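Sample 1 of the test manifest.
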Amino acid sequence: MYYEPIQVKLKNDVDAEITDIKPEYQNDMISNYFTVFDEIERGKSKYGSDVGILLSYTKESYEEEVAWFNKKLQKIENDEQIARVAVVAGHPVGLVDIRKGGLGRRHMGEIGIFIRKDYRGMGVGKALMEDVLKLAKGWVKIAVLSVFEENKAAYNLYKKLGFEEYGRLEDAIELRNKKITEIWMYKRL
Ligand SMILES: CC(C)(COP(=O)(O)OP(=O)(O)OC[C@H]1O[C@@H](n2cnc3c(N)ncnc32)[C@H](O)[C@@H]1OP(=O)(O)O)[C@@H](O)C(=O)NCCC(=O)NCCS
């Protein structure tokens, strides 16, 4: 499915385009993902749970990431997910996706979002979330997502967009010697 690109102005007056994933974004998107590992290594906490996504213990190979990218394009083509990127000066700096549930949950979509560290706090996350929620209206009836308790930026963003908590599980995640409380949130579209 093809969705129209939209233009947005970020908080620092920089122009960004919110658009579908294109094959030529492959290397930038892989490099964006790899930056998270550097973030965790440089971060204060060993786990870096403020980054808010579950990462494997070792970096995947470039080839594995190419396979991930191609699979993603296929899932979009098959209408299994909607994925949009924020492009600044020709380079994607953030990704949001919403993935349709399985049997009995085809009316639910699970959202994931990631913005490159150097582009956070500028309104990219909000613009991507608003865009994907708009596109997903009619495609699924309920949007769901999960957020780590200490990921205040993400939690605040979701609350601001009307997501409500429907579950909170202490120690839901144990990774890198750290226990994390996970919060589940939903929004009816
Ligand atoms: C969470 C994330 C998607 C937010 O995107 P962003 O582009 O940085 O956020 P925005 O600039 O659009 O801010 C939108 C709102 O989020 C909240 N927010 C953003 N950064 C924040 C921070 N550092 N502290 C508290 N709230 C914050 C605010 O409510 C903000 O609204 P405001 O600007 O009116 O105050 C981004 O920080 C990110 O990709 N983090 C790493 C990956 C991740 O955690 N993904 C989410 C997994 S659940």
